[in-house]
């Protein structure tokens, strides 16, 4: 009997241990918070940039690349960016833009005028992708345009050039005779002639955006023709270097070219794309992006002037500051009349101001420019 009782007691003890163990295993396990779960983390927003040149040009593409890096610095892990350089303005552009869309990129930035038609074509095929085109005019439900009123900074640089050129003969290396470039040449000339009514701006076309050899050759031709100050609408520092080698001064473009060439670069109208890129991507991430045609100016910080060279006198910098304040306050803008065309006709009558559409389609030179637009 004792043996039976002992056996029953041991059995009961073992059963209680067994069920206690089972009960312990059934206790709820703490869940990993959603924010900490790798599987539930949101995928980063993917943005691709298509460049006409190389970031090493120290000019146009260099500034777009700085803008891309600004995005990464500001948005961190929320965004993933990439870029491709040296993309021709032709059918290849459509292929590359399409590939980015097919690979799941959420937004694509095309940074040169000649990409417009190709981006527009691809935008029709991918309605859920955001497309942003620099300097063009075609838009769609999912495609916007963006640019800056560089003509304002060009005008300010023209003031510096007009005050600094001893001969009044200024050389301008131009890329293509399109409205963007013609507008910049005209604004620069208006600035130069405001402080020196006899100043002239001679234009040589290279018909390329990025070609260091052609840019240098054009600058040398202008120097040989008696110009003592060189500027350009091109993508590299070669015109500035050519001027420096001749003991002449220059005005930079796109970026602060004085950092790369030296004090012979008096000042540079430059781009500041970073804030626009970051804000546009954030709008898309938040689902509030809408198609638009952005054209910001000095007031918006998209265009600006670099620091002045020590060669620029205080009276000139003070004048630039005064004119900047007028433009930013909306009291005046560059293409407010009277403005005469190259042939002497009235381009903008006194008391009137040129409309944005007219500026965006500008095709003739102002008085003081030497050269042809091809239009």
Automatic annotation (TrEMBL):
Residues 1-20 form the signal peptide. CDD domains: PBP1_BMP-like. GO terms for cellular component: plasma membrane. Pfam families: Bmp. Keywords: Lipoprotein, Signal. Residues 46-327 form the ABC transporter substrate-binding protein PnrA-like domain. Gene3D superfamilies: 3.40.50.2300. The keyword Lipoprotein applies. InterPro entries: ABC-Purine-Binding, PnrA-like. Coiled coil: none annotated. This is Basic membrane lipoprotein. It comes from Sediminispirochaeta smaragdinae (strain DSM 11293 / JCM 15392 / SEBR 4228) (Spirochaeta smaragdinae). The lineage of its organism: Bacteria, Pseudomonadati, Spirochaetota, Spirochaetia, Spirochaetales.
């Amino acid at each position: 009997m004792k043996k039976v009782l002992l056996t029953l007691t041991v059995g009961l003890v073992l059963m209680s241990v067994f069920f206690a163990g089972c009960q312990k295993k059934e206790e709820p396990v703490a869940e990993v918070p959603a924010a900490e779960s790798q599987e539930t983390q949101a995928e980063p927003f993917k943005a691709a940039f298509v460049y006409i040149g190389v970031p090493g040009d120290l000019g146009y593409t260099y500034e777009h690349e700085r803008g891309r890096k600004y995005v990464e610095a500001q948005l961190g892990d929320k965004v993933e960016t990439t870029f491709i350089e040296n993309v021709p303005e032709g059918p290849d552009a459509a292929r590359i833009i399409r590939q980015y869309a097919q690979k799941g990129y959420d937004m694509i930035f095309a940074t040169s005028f000649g990409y417009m038609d190709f981006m527009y074509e691809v935008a029709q095929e991918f309605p859920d992708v955001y497309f942003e085109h620099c300097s063009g005019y075609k838009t769609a439900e999912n495609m916007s345009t963006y640019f800056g009123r560089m003509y304002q900074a060009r005008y300010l640089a023209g003031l510096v050039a007009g005050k600094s050129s001893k001969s009044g003969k200024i050389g301008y290396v131009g890329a293509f005779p399109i409205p963007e470039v013609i507008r910049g040449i005209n604004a620069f000339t208006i600035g130069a002639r405001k402080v020196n009514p006899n100043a002239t701006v001679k234009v040589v076309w290279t018909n390329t955006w990025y070609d260091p050899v052609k840019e240098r050759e054009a600058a040398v031709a202008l120097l040989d023709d008696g110009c003592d100050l060189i500027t350009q609408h091109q993508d590299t520092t070669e015109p500035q270097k050519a001027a420096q080698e001749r003991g002449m001064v220059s005005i930079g473009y796109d970026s602060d070219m004085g950092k790369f060439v030296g004090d012979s670069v008096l000042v540079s109208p430059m781009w500041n794309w970073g804030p626009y890129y970051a804000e546009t991507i954030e709008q898309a991430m938040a689902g509030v992006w809408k198609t638009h045609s952005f054209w910001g100016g000095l007031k918006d910080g998209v265009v600006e002037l670099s620091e002045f060279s020590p060669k620029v006198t205080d009276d000139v910098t003070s004048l630039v500051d005064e004119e900047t304040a007028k433009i930013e306050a909306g009291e005046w803008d560059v293409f407010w009349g009277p403005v005469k065309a190259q042939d002497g006709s009235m381009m903008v009558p006194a008391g009137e101001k040129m409309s944005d559409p007219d500026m965006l389609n500008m095709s003739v030179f102002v008085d003081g420019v030497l050269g042809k637009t091809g239009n």
